[in-house]
Amino acid sequence: MDLSYSGNLSCSEDTSAIDSSFSSEYRLSEGEQSKPGSPVRSRWEIIDNTNLDKVQRDMLGQVTSILDCSTSVARTLLMHFNWDKDALFGEYADRGVEWLLQAASVTSSNQDSIGCETSDGELFCQSCLCEVPVDGTAAMDCGHTFCIECWREYLKIGISEGRSRRLTCMAYKCGAICSEPKVKLLLEGLHDTVRRYERSLAESFVDDNRRARWCPSVPHCGSAVRVEGDLLCEPRCSCGKHFCFGCGEEPHSPCTCRMWELWTKKIADADESETKSWMTVHTKNCPQCQKPVEKNGGCNLVVCVCGQPFCWLCGQATQKRHTWDQIYGHECGRWKDDVQLNVDKVRRMMKRYQHYYHMWRSHCKSLEVEKKLQGWLEGAEDHVDQELEYIGHLPEYHWLDDGLQQLVEARRVLGNSYVFAFYMFGDLYQDQVSPDQNLINQNLFEDQQQQLESQVERLSQLLQDLDKKPADSSIRHLVVNCTRSVDTRCSKLYELIEDDLLGAVEPVHGCIAAYRGGRPCKTTWDELQDTGECVTSSRADFNGCCASEAESEGQVEGRQWSARKRPMTELTNHMAEAKIKWPCPSERVAVAPRH
Ligand SMILES: [Zn+2]
Ligand SMILES: [Zn+2]
Ligand SMILES: [Zn+2]
Ligand SMILES: [Zn+2]
Ligand SMILES: [Zn+2]
Ligand SMILES: [Zn+2]
Ligand SMILES: [Zn+2]
Question: Which residues form the RING-type domain (predicted)?
């Protein structure tokens, strides 16, 4: 089984919640997503040109055998139910097959032909208003009969206009769905049209199916992803595109789709809105000529270029005579406080946004650097591999690989956690969470967030300084432990968000995709054991999730490379030869301290 493009496989064996039809032989590429240690929440498979038909056949087969109908009727029914076969079978159990067929506008059997037969054995076609010999006409399942030329023209137009899935009978007010075999028969010889028709029916499996989604890659790779279980997940397509199944955007957990949508919009017109906010805070329109006027210090009397004096606090026109705290003949009284409060509020909201934006942005920048590091490591591994005529991962460097993978994933989570906080503790849920509770929640969240942040920075530092330290086994030990604790911190943060924060508010905008984890269990006990290191966790702990991994490595044991234990210096030497460098310190972006 080719798993080269799969998502992270869960350690759990409990897949009872997942449709059993999923494990059939057509799996080309798939993945799973779940909280580590809990049942698999989502599982996905990649659908591409080669298996689009095959993946439907199973479902069509189930419907044809239970309802005892043809494949084309089964397809029409499934399309009517948006490929939700459970809903279809539910209605079947409740209301029977006749109801189903009627609901989906399927005419079950051949009716007597309905047409106007003329005296000389010819039929009068209601469409072209011609008399046609009977063998030049065709009847749909509903019985309505027209001449073949009219049918062909009608179907061709329907298909070219993209109505392949709802081609109905030509007769006035009939509305019966044209059966698939009849359509194909009538379109005999029109290969392109038939192909287009078949393609459209096949793609309905993705287009009309809430469990399937086309890969959002640009240019489009031609594949789709189908999900079983929780629809909130972040699958990776075979083309490498990683996306949120809910909204099709880049993976954004722990933000909900709604938060991410708001955020991307907000940062897209940040310039504009920032200018606007600045104007609100720093300028006021002249009551005379309406031009924005900026206050340049001093008292509350401002004079516009047009010569109009006005009160800065309330914006009303006044006369020029004033003292430092009073304008002659002008009282804005209580209103002044409101206006000042309003200005303060806008200013506070701006500062708040800037804080979260800055934190998010800093982590994004760190992520770029760390991804480069990952790329460089891959380059270095390839170089080492080629030398030994073996292409594949070097088990000796799994800990480094795992560490980087975990770092990149955790960095993404950490950055997005600021976006989450911006909305969670901002105004998105203010109707549902009291201000007091909100403050408690925020403190709870920030505690966890800071713990994650310090672990992530530590791991980042460890990995970025590898080339400067003497490469001994204690570094490997540090990295492995730090990788695991970053993983645990991420997992805890998701738990808090899902159970206590989003779990306590109405799921108006849905919940979030499960934490994917890095690949923390790839470093096996045996690898560490071989080097004579001790690890803090138990052997069972490691082997629990790595049994299959360890096995597959066992199979290649005995190859030339496996007998050699390469010290860190050797890797960095190889990297130097290949002119691959860790990023220089100036490229390493540090996160600014909190305000
Ligand atoms: Zn006709
Ligand atoms: Zn009809
Ligand atoms: Zn793709
Ligand atoms: Zn989304
Ligand atoms: Zn003016
Ligand atoms: Zn003055
Ligand atoms: Zn005033």
Answer: 121-336
- Active site residue ranges: 299
Rounded to the nearest angstrom, the distance between the alpha carbon of 321 and the centre of ligand 7 is 13
Radius of gyration of the chain (CA): 33
Give the residue from 20, 92, 10 showing the smallest Cα distance to 59: 20
Which two tokens mark 513?
């995709």
**Closest ligand to the CA of 222:** 3
The CATH number of the domain holding residue 544 is: 1.20.120
pLDDT of residue 25: 31
In a domain, 68, yes or no: no
Domain contains 472: yes
287 CA from centroid of ligand 5 (Å) = 7
CATH of the domain at 131: 3.30.40.10
Query: Has residue 99 been placed in a domain?
Result: no
Number of domains the chain contains: 2
Q: What angle do CA 19, 22, 24 make, to 5 degrees?
A: 135
Residue-wise burial string across 44-76, b where 16 or more C-beta atoms lie within 10 A, e elsewhere: bbbbbeebbeebbeebbebbbeebebbebbbbb
59-to-88, 165, 191, 412 alpha-carbon distances in Å: 11, 18, 27, 38
Boundary residue ending a domain (162, 179, 207): 207
> Which tokens belong to 529?
């054991």
pLDDT tens digits along 307-342: 888 887 777 888 888 877 777 877 765 455 566 667
pLDDT digits (tens, 9 = 90+) for 491-519: 999 999 988 899 888 765 568 888 877 64
**CA 139 to centroid of ligand 2, rounded, Å:** 8
Ligand nearest to the CA of 255: 4
Distance 51 CA to ligand 3 centre (A): 14
* Residue numbers of the domain that contains 131: 116-207
SS3 131: strand
Q: Which residues surround ligand 6, an ion (CB under 5 A)?
A: 299
Nearest ligand to the C-alpha atom of residue 110? 2
The predicted-structure confidence for 514-539, as pLDDT tens digits, reads as follows 887 764 333 333 343 333 333 333 32
- Among 149, 178, 207, the domain boundary falls at 207
Please report whether residue 525 resides in a domain: yes
d(CA 11, CA 47): 24
Give, for 572, the enclosing helix (H) or strand (E). helix 568-577
